Amino acid sequence: MPAENLSRDEARERAELLSVDGYEVALDLRSAVDEAEPAEGPRTFRSVTTIRFRAAVPGAATFADLIAPSVDAVTLNGRALDPAEVFDGARIALADLASENVLVVEANCAYSRTGEGMHRFVDPEDGEVYLYTQYEPADARRVYANFEQPDLKAPYRFEVAAPEGWQVWSNGAETSREGGVWRFAETAPISTYITCVVAGPYHYVTDTYTRGDLTIPLGAMCRKGLAKHFDADDVFLVTKQGFDFFHEHFDYPYPFGKYDQAFVPEYNLGAMENPGLVTFREEYIFRGKVTKASYERRANVILHEMAHMWFGDLVTMKWWDDLWLKESFADFMGTFSLVGATRFDNAWITFANNRKAWAYRADQLPSTHPITADIRDLEDAKLNFDGITYAKGASVLKQLVAYVGRDAFLEGARRYFKAHAYGNTTLDDLLSVLGEVSGRDMAGWSRAWLQTAGVNALTPVVTYDAAGRITELAVLQEGQELRPHRVAVGLYRLDVDGSLVRYARAEADVAGTRTVVADLAGAERPDLVLVNDEDLTYCKIRFDEGSLETLRRHLGDITDPLARALCWSALWNLTRDGLMPARDFLSLVLAFAGRESDVGVLQMLHSQALSAVTHYAAPERREQSGRDLAAGALHELRLADPGSEHQLTWARFFAACAATEGDFQLLLGLLEGSARIDGLEVDQELRWDFLLPLAAHGAVDEAVLDAELARDDTASGKRHQVRCLAARPSEAVKAQAWAAVVESDALSNALVEATIAGMQQPSQRALLAPFTQPYFAVIERLWSERSIQIAMDVVKGLYPMLQDGEATLAATDAWLGEHEQAAPALRRLVVESRDDLARALRAQACDAAAG
Question: What's this model's pTM, rounded to 2 decimal places?
Answer without folding.
Answer: 0.96
